[in-house]
C-alpha cells in the first residue's frame, strides 16, 4: 500500500524550517496609487541611493500600498509603522496621504539607522527594520 504524500504549504514549510510564521503578501495597491507614492518619494528623497534603499524597504513592507495593514501586528501604511498612529506626528492625514507616510518613514529611518541605506542594510540582515 502506497503512503500518501502530503504537500507542505509555503507557510508550513517556512514554519517547519525557520520557526517563523509567514504572513500573507501585502494587498496589491492600485497602479495609480503606486505611481503617485513613488513620485512623492522621489521628490522627498532626491538622492538616488537613498531612494533606492527606501523603495526596497517599502516594496517589501507594503508593496507601496498606503493602506496596507499587518493583520498580526497592526503595523500600517507604506513603511508599516507600529502603531500606525505614530505617523500622526508627520500629519493628521497619515492614514491616506503617501507624503505624510513617506516623511514619517524617512525621519524614522534617518533617526534610527542614519539613512534609508542604513535601514535597508539592517532589513537585509534581519528581515525587518
Automatic annotation (TrEMBL):
The keyword Signal appears for this protein: yes
The Transglycosylase SLT domain, residue ranges: 52-120
SUPFAM superfamilies: Lysozyme-like (SSF53955)
Signal sequence bounds: 1-29
Keyword annotations of the record: Signal
Pfam families to which the protein is assigned, alphabetical: SLT
Coiled-coil features, chain-numbered ranges: none
UniProt xrefs under InterPro entries: Lysozyme-like_dom_sf, Transglycosylase_SLT_dom_1
UniProt-recorded name of the protein: Transglycosylase SLT domain-containing protein
Source organism of this protein record: Streptomyces cellulosae
